[in-house]
Design brief:
heterodimer, A: alpha/beta, Rossmann fold, 6-stranded mixed β-sheet, B: mainly alpha, 2 domains, 72% helix, flat, cell membrane (chain A), nucleotide-binding (chain A), transport (chain A), Co_trans_ATP-bd (chain A)
């Protein structure tokens, strides 16, 4: 029996924006099924650019992205966007339908699933993020933390291979932070978390990757990466005052 | 800093369980549109026109009573009419033709009829629309428009408007608070310049948000179509209830034409 293909395989990915600004210079990244990985890096390191390649919003200038064995290409885009669930930073950008249930149903309906299947997936996804009570409420009535969890549900309803979160802890209060962490660590999916919240990475992800200047500059167990003070300082990453990665 | 419960647009909706509340939204839309058409079709200069207006008013007030929409709520709905009132009041003074004395002022007879007719028609139509908005949730209205085969693009634009009115309104509010916290008071030419800058930056922010929303939609497989759930067919009885308002108005119009 052969091992399943990695959830995500990025090989020698390079990309320049149309205005000539080159954001990625040959990124290599391999994430196995079921892993939880933090993607760290300062502002402008190319993190968002990389994320937008994972579901084919941006097209590689050079190199290739493969999701569970399927290369990202124009023909495979609908299936790629099902396999890669991106949770954007501002839930108000992600949640646009009049009710929570409609919003969670948006992805599955785009897949052309029958209504019973859509309803079942909406219920299951909202239960996974502990928001089943809010199904019929308009998103703008929810707290920020609740909206972020609903945003996670909107991609879970697609039954993705990998969930990519862009700054999941930003603007959350401590309770919202903890609730989101509890929900995310229970999910039976591969997780890639883009952040510069180093304690959150330490709490949730056994492995960390640092991206800077459009290349991967470090990749290893999170405690090792976070205790290398020289490495962090070289890439404008800083632990909060008093935080010890070993603890 | 979120919107209060309900949000700006939802605030127009008054929850209830009346027969009008329970009607399918697309039936109500058809009913209000048909009523407005009948009202507009009434000839302004016919001698029986004022009687017909009174008949329509009776019909629309009956509908409001059935729907449980309070007179105060109806009056608030009429606020949008104010610019039309100003225009209608001007008409008798600017129109040509035979003059009549009203309250010691000499005004044009045709202008008076035209202005009065305009005012009556606008008021009646707005009353009907107010009942619609007070008894129908905004998103139910959208579903109604969709069922009436309004093009998808327009339905989607309206949907985004409902969803993001509060978000953009909240942004505007925060910008105002931030401005005033730095000692800004509106008024004068300088005030106008600041307002223009605010409007400009609000536009840029909203435009950028639009791009981000689009990106998030694409990431979930958006192809230009907004799939919605299944809809049930409306019962013939519901059609009869919904059409009773325009049919009553049509009966008044017909009576006026035959008898007047």
């Amino acid at each position: 029996m052969t091992a399943p293909p990695p959830s995500l395989l990025v090989e020698d990915l390079a990309f320049a924006y149309p205005d000539g600004h080159q954001a990625l210079f040959g990124v290599d990244l391999r994430i196995e099924r079921g892993e939880r990985v933090a993607l760290l890096g300062p502002n402008g390191a190319g993190k968002t650019t990389l994320v937008l390649h994972l579901n084919g919003i941006l097209r590689a200038g050079r190199g290739e992205v493969t999701v569970a064995g399927l290369p990202v290409a124009k023909r495979s885009l609908p299936e790629i966007r099902r396999r890669v669930g991106v949770v954007f930073q501002d839930p108000d950008d992600q949640l646009f339908m009049p009710t929570v249930a409609d919003d969670v149903a948006f992805g599955p309906r785009n897949l052309g699933l029958p209504e019973e299947e859509v309803a079942a997936r909406v219920t299951a996804a909202l239960e996974q993020v502990r928001m089943a009570d809010a199904a019929d409420r308009p998103p703008h009535h929810l707290s920020f933390g609740q909206r972020r969890r609903v945003a996670v549900a909107t991609v879970l309803a697609m039954q993705p291979e990998i969930v990519v979160l862009d700054e999941p802890s930003s603007n959350l209060d401590p309770a919202g932070r903890r609730e989101l962490a509890e929900v995310l660590t229970e999910l039976p999916v591969t997780l890639l978390m883009v952040t510069h919240d180093l304690p959150y990475a330490a709490q949730m992800c056994p492995r960390s990757v640092i991206l800077d200047g459009g290349v991967v500059v470090a990749d290893g167990p999170t405690p090792d990466v976070l205790s290398d003070a020289g490495l962090l300082a070289a890439h404008r990453l800083e632990l909060p005052y008093g935080f010890s990665p070993a603890g | 800093m979120g919107a209060g419960p309900g949000g700006t647009l939802l605030a127009r909706y008054v929850p209830g369980t009346s027969a009008v509340h329970r009607l399918e939204p697309h039936l109500k839309l058809v009913s209000v549109l048909a009523f407005a058409l009948v009202v507009v079709a009434t000839p302004v200069h016919a001698p029986w026109a004022p009687a017909a207006y009174a008949g329509y008013l009776l019909a629309v007030l009956t509908a409001a009573a059935v729907a449980g929409v309070s007179p105060a709520r109806l009056a608030r709905g009429l606020v949008v009419e104010v610019p039309f009132v100003a225009f209608a009041v001007l008409l008798p003074f600017v129109a040509a033709g035979p003059q009549v004395e009203v309250l010691g002022l000499s005004v044009s007879r045709t202008g008076l009829a035209a202005g009065g007719g305009l005012l009556a028609k606008a008021t009646l139509s707005i009353l009907a629309a107010t009942i619609l908005s007070a008894t129908t949730e905004p998103r139910a209205l959208l579903r109604g428009l969709e069922r009436l085969r309004l093009p998808q693009v327009l339905v989607q634009i309206l949907m985004f408007m409902i969803r993001y009115a509060d978000v953009v309104g909240g942004e505007l509010h925060r910008m105002r608070v931030a401005r005033e916290s730095r000692g800004f008071h509106g008024g004068g030419l300088r005030g106008l310049r600041v307002m223009a800058a605010t409007a400009g930056s609000l536009f840029v922010r909203s435009y950028e948000r639009g791009e981000r929303v689009h990106l998030a939609m694409l990431s979930r497989g958006y192809t230009g179509r907004l799939p919605t759930g299944a809809v049930s067919a409306a019962a013939p009885g519901a059609w009869a209830v919904a059409l009773s308002l325009p049919l009553a108005a049509a009966a008044v119009l017909l009576a006026g034409m035959l008898l007047g």
